[in-house]
């Protein structure tokens, strides 16, 4: 097995088995894990405490118990998170960090059924005001205080600034990875690409950085092969379950860039420089654009996606629409019209973690492939 | 030269045999679909009607929900591409296709050459599909082929949910028990189907000529309701249930011809 295959296999295994990653971390460090709900929580604070931040993005499972607490029109991430809470899946987390940038998260944050303590905080939506930075820095101060109390640790500014640098390096390496992977879609197929990115949620970031850095240089040493399929940019919240990515692969699609909340949106901007770490983290939210969960009066998502298509020489955009995610649904008509005006082809597929039948997705993807 | 298109849907199986890419010599439909005896039976019926054998087919292309399970096919093409191909062959002025089948609703926008520009499908819900009409027909005790006549006699269409077949069924039962005339309920059912399909058509962009195909296009009550909602005339494709199979047969013909031309060019190049 080549080094490239070994690294991909290691990262895929971590991304497929977060529980083992948590257990390994505990064995190595003696410290536990803190859950991080979507979207855009300052993981760096957990990292600075020496604990493992673990992304909570639900999973592919049928929903029954959660029906007692959530309406059927809550997105399937939250449905499956609620189902797993009720099954005690998250009970060995030391705490759960819970941002609430959408209505479903706001409501879910008030009915957490697991036993781990939950730290809820709010992202301001009048983001471009200086007051927003001050507000969010204060929210993060409270998050830090609560984490210190729950985890019985002190989180110094120095440790936090150090963690921010570790995260910024990971962000930079991940941006390099997505650029390099775009040149090797035969090797980095949609499933592998997703697994490499997803492993970030379950690894201490400097370890993830080291592996991806090595992968990047190994990939770069290979000659660029011709790709006979079609190149696409993914946009949306997430492109799961893996069956969806399998269908893309089977129909000859390669992912050359993405604008997924679970993937590139997390690392397309660095946390800005400065001395006050909480203010730096707050400022990241102000500078972050093009996401349905962050109010954007200029509606820059469409132009950003079009730039992405141009830069990555993509043939089209695949809209991975999370079922019942109203922020994403509201954005769609705006950027869809911009695509139409610019002559950019797009495919709309529905993302539902509960689904087990993918025939409609197959038809849509095959038709799109025939259309391009 | 004969080519065959096989369209295996969720609730019906269709086969078209085409001669020289232009003449339909068999176009058969059986009202049971994938996973049943329908595909085999419709294939046998079409061959028998044409007086041909499977070996006489230069190429066979399968389409539809059950396209992957047709062993006789040389290739599978999605029903969206095949509908576009088949409808454009029959109505070359088409710009927007509304296709309502057993479990799918699709709006397909075409360019002037019949290529697919954009398409939208319903989500995983039976509302607005042929299955929805089946359920309503059973509850109302009115045959599917009589529903358009009932609709034509409606005086005050009832309101029927377009969100969910199960909700809509209980709404219809409640209206029946309240003494609402079947004619008015059926007109409401047709409006409900139309609102689902038109939602997809609006996403695609409505442009004439609009052509309807799929099994539900045979229910003129739905066609009228769609035309009323879009405020535009809607053409029903001739024999609307076989248009995707026809498209598949045309694709098969084009692929055979392309291979022949390619081989000819190769030979000509070698002889130069």
From TrEMBL, chain A:
<protein>
    <submittedName>
        <fullName>Benzoyl-CoA reductase, subunit C</fullName>
    </submittedName>
</protein>
<dbReference type="GO" id="GO:0046872">
    <property type="term" value="F:metal ion binding"/>
</dbReference>
<keyword id="KW-0479">Metal-binding</keyword>
<dbReference type="GO" id="GO:0016836">
    <property type="term" value="F:hydro-lyase activity"/>
</dbReference>
<keyword id="KW-0411">Iron-sulfur</keyword>
<keyword id="KW-0408">Iron</keyword>
<dbReference type="InterPro" id="IPR010327">
    <property type="entry name" value="FldB/FldC_alpha/beta"/>
</dbReference>
<dbReference type="Pfam" id="PF06050">
    <property type="entry name" value="HGD-D"/>
</dbReference>
<comment type="similarity">
    <text>Belongs to the FldB/FldC dehydratase alpha/beta subunit family.</text>
</comment>
<dbReference type="GO" id="GO:0051536">
    <property type="term" value="F:iron-sulfur cluster binding"/>
</dbReference>
UniProtKB/TrEMBL annotation, chain B:
<keyword id="KW-0479">Metal-binding</keyword>
<dbReference type="InterPro" id="IPR008275">
    <property type="entry name" value="CoA_E_activase_dom"/>
</dbReference>
<dbReference type="InterPro" id="IPR051805">
    <property type="entry name" value="Dehydratase_Activator_Redct"/>
</dbReference>
<keyword id="KW-0411">Iron-sulfur</keyword>
<dbReference type="GO" id="GO:0051536">
    <property type="term" value="F:iron-sulfur cluster binding"/>
</dbReference>
<dbReference type="InterPro" id="IPR043129">
    <property type="entry name" value="ATPase_NBD"/>
</dbReference>
<dbReference type="InterPro" id="IPR002731">
    <property type="entry name" value="ATPase_BadF"/>
</dbReference>
<comment type="subunit">
    <text>Homodimer.</text>
</comment>
<dbReference type="Pfam" id="PF01869">
    <property type="entry name" value="BcrAD_BadFG"/>
</dbReference>
<keyword id="KW-0408">Iron</keyword>
<dbReference type="GO" id="GO:0046872">
    <property type="term" value="F:metal ion binding"/>
</dbReference>
<feature type="domain" description="ATPase BadF/BadG/BcrA/BcrD type">
    <location>
        <begin position="5"/>
        <end position="252"/>
    </location>
</feature>
<protein>
    <submittedName>
        <fullName>CoA-substrate-specific enzyme activase, putative</fullName>
    </submittedName>
</protein>
């Amino acid at each position: 097995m080549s080094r490239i295959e070994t690294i991909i296999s290691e990262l895929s295994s971590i991304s497929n088995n977060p529980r083992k990653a948590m257990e390994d971390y505990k064995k190595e460090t003696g410290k536990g894990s803190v859950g991080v709900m979507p979207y855009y929580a300052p993981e760096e604070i957990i990292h600075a405490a020496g604990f493992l931040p673990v992304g909570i993005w639900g999973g592919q499972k049928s929903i029954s118990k959660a029906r007692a607490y959530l309406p059927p029109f809550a997105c399937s991430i939250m449905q499956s998170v609620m189902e797993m809470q009720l099954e005690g899946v998250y009970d060995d987390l030391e705490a759960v960090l819970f941002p609430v940038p959408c209505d479903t998260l706001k409501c879910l944050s008030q009915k957490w059924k697991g036993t781990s303590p939950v730290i809820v905080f709010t992202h301001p939506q009048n983001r471009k005001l200086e007051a927003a930075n001050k507000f969010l820095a204060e929210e993060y101060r409270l998050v830090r205080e609560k984490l210190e109390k729950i985890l019985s640790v002190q989180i110094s500014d120095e440790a936090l600034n150090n963690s921010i640098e570790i995260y910024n390096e990971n962000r930079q390496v991940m941006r390099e990875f997505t650029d390099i992977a775009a040149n090797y879609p035969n090797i980095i197929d949609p499933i592998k690409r997703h697994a490499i990115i997803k492993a970030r949620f379950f690894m201490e970031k400097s370890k993830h950085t080291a592996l991806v850095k090595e992968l990047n240089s190994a990939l770069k040493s290979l000659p660029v092969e011709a790709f006979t399929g079609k190149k696409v940019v993914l946009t949306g919240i997430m492109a799961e379950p893996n069956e969806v990515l399998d269908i893309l692969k089977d129909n000859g699609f390669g992912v050359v860039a993405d604008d997924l909340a679970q993937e590139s949106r997390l690392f397309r901007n660095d946390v800005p420089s400065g001395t006050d770490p909480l203010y730096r983290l707050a400022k990241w939210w102000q500078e972050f654009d093009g996401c349905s969960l962050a109010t954007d009066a200029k509606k820059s998502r469409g132009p950003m996606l079009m730039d992405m298509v141009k830069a990555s020489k993509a043939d089209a955009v695949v809209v991975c629409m999370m079922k019942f995610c109203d922020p994403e649904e509201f954005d769609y008509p705006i950027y869809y019209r911009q695509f139409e005006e610019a002559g950019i082809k797009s495919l709309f597929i529905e993302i539902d973690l509960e689904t087990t039948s993918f025939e409609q997705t197959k038809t849509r993807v095959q038709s799109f492939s025939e259309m391009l | 030269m004969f080519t065959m298109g096989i369209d295996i849907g969720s609730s019906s199986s269709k086969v078209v045999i085409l001669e020289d890419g232009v003449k339909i010599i068999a176009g058969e439909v059986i009202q049971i679909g994938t996973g049943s005896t329908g595909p085999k039976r419709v294939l046998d019926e079409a061959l028998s009607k044409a007086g041909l054998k499977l070996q006489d087919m230069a190429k066979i292309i399968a389409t539809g929900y059950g396209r992957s399970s047709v062993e006789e096919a040389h290739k599978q093409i999605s029903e969206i591409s095949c509908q576009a191909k088949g409808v454009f062959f029959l109505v070359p002025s088409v710009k927007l296709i509304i296709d309502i089948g057993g479990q799918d609703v699709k709006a397909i926008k075409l360019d002037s050459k019949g290529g697919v520009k954009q398409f939208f499908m319903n989500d995983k819900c039976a509302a607005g599909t042929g299955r929805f009409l089946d359920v309503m027909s059973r509850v109302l005790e009115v045959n599917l082929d009589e529903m358009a006549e009932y609709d034509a006699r409606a005086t005050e269409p009832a309101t029927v949910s377009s969100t969910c077949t199960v909700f809509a069924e209980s709404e219809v039962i409640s209206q029946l028990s309240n003494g609402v005339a079947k004619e008015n309920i059926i007109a409401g059912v047709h409006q409900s189907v139309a609102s689902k399909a038109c939602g997809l058509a609006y996403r695609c962009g409505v442009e004439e000529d609009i052509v309807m195909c799929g099994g539900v296009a045979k229910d003129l009550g739905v066609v009228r309701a769609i035309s009323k909602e879009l405020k535009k005339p809607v053409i029903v494709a001739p024999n609307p249930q076989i248009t995707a199979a026809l498209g598949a047969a045309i694709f098969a013909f084009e692929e055979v011809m392309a291979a022949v031309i390619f081989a000819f060019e190769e030979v000509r190049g070698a002889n130069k």
